[in-house]
Amino acid sequence: MRPRSYRSTKVMFMIPVLMAAVTAFGQSSPGLQLNNYTIPVGKAGAVVGQFHDQQGIAKAVKLVEDTSGLFDISRKGEMKLKKKTSLANNGAAFKFAVTVESNGTREHFILVKDNFIRNKVVAHRGAWKNNAGSQNSLTSLRDAIRIGCEGSEFDVWLSSDGVPMISHDPHIGGKKLEETPAAELGAIDLKNGDKVPSLEAYIGEIMKQNNTRLVLEIKPSGVSKERGQQLAQTCMDIIRRHNAQAWMYYISFDYDICKKIAALDPFAKVAYLNGDKTPAELKADKIWGFDYNWKIIDDNMNIFKDARKNDVTVNIWTVNKPEQMDTYLKAGTDYLTTDEPEMLLQKVK
Ligand code: MG
Q1: CA–centroid distance, residue 218 to ligand 1 (Å)
Q2: 224 with 332, same domain?
Q3: How far apart are CA 265 and CA 269, in angstroms?
Q4: Residue-wise over 45-71: b if at least 16 C-beta within 10 A, else e?
């Protein structure tokens, strides 16, 4: 018998209802994690992921809400598609909300059909350079999605009233991000007419599709080390509240911020930026990858081999020259962060 393909129209109708339910329940308590949030396409009975506690220990859970009726929990605690159910490649529905219960606590998750692009192309501050959008604007994010990047990078700071706001520099429009309330920052015009966006606006935008992911750079605080930790915590709380884990990669120059993210979600894909840790050191600290400046890489091309040996991912910034792109692609990099995503897209085609 052929596996039953799920009819997407029904699910399309359900999504707003499910999203409303998620919001009504409010924030999930930070207990359970999945080690994967994406649903393989065209595979009946496919495993999505296993539930764990924050220490990364597998947990048994009960499925208490699944309006789409697509999912089962295996005896091992894996979230999976039902035996004869698969997701069609051409189906329009891609977000599916589920609620599970463990030790009397209910938690909500969004599972996402895996149409995510794997072409190594990360648009640095969005796809702004060859388009109309300013860097780190919603327009530059939309352009990165439109042209088909695997990831779109952006930078966040904590506003004076505790809201993650997006800017590369520590100041924007003559105001210091860390000393200005979010409402004031959000009123500042960018060159292209966009306003300074918030992390939540970016999450809202990325969750409208399932091709491109966000690469969230958490900036170390200029005020104190603790404030950097607070920013990491706030970002992770927001991502959890929106159930946006499937869409996220994380990067930071502050190693303690990377470790904080890994502690809050042992399966978070977090990469370290500062260039001073070996792949073995990253692995020992359960950090998923590194994202180093190309000068560091050029001084040590053995790092590709070392990364593979330690099962650590490789990203390189900011790679804008065609011959550099060729070198690193040939060396087997996992990602390249670039201001020229259009050029890199041509190369990986
Ligand atoms: Mg950045």
Answers
A1: 8
A2: yes
A3: 9
A4: ebebbbbbeeeeeeeebeeeebbbebb
Q: Show which of 113, 138, 157 is a domain's final residue.
A: 113
Distance 145 CA to ligand 1 centre (A): 17
Q: What is the CATH number of the domain that holds 249?
A: 3.20.20.190
Residue that is last in its domain, among 47, 78, 113: 113
Dist. CA 226 → ligand 1 center (Å)? 20
| Co-location of 31 and 164 in the same domain | no
Q: What is the pTM of this model?
A: 0.91
Ligand 1 centroid, distance to 291 Cα (angstroms): 11
Instruction: Find the 215 Cα to ligand 1 centroid distance in Å.
Output: 9
CA-based torsion, 318, 323, 325, 328: positive or negative: negative
Q: What is the pLDDT of residues 198-242, one digit of tens each?
A: 999 999 999 999 999 999 999 999 999 999 999 999 999 999 999
- Find the 265 Cα to ligand 1 centroid distance in Å: 21
Distance CA 274, CA 219 (A): 12
Ligand 1 centroid distance, CA of 316 (Å):
12
Total number of domains constituting the chain: 2
**Are 294 and 165 part of one and the same domain?**
yes
> Rounded CA gap, 254 and 275, in Å?
11
Print the domain residue range for 53. Answer: 4-113
Q: Ligand 1 mean position to 210 CA, how many Å? A: 22
**Which tens digit of pLDDT belongs to each residue from 56-100?**
899 989 999 999 999 999 888 899 999 999 999 888 899 999 999
CA of 168 to the centre of ligand 1 (A): 6
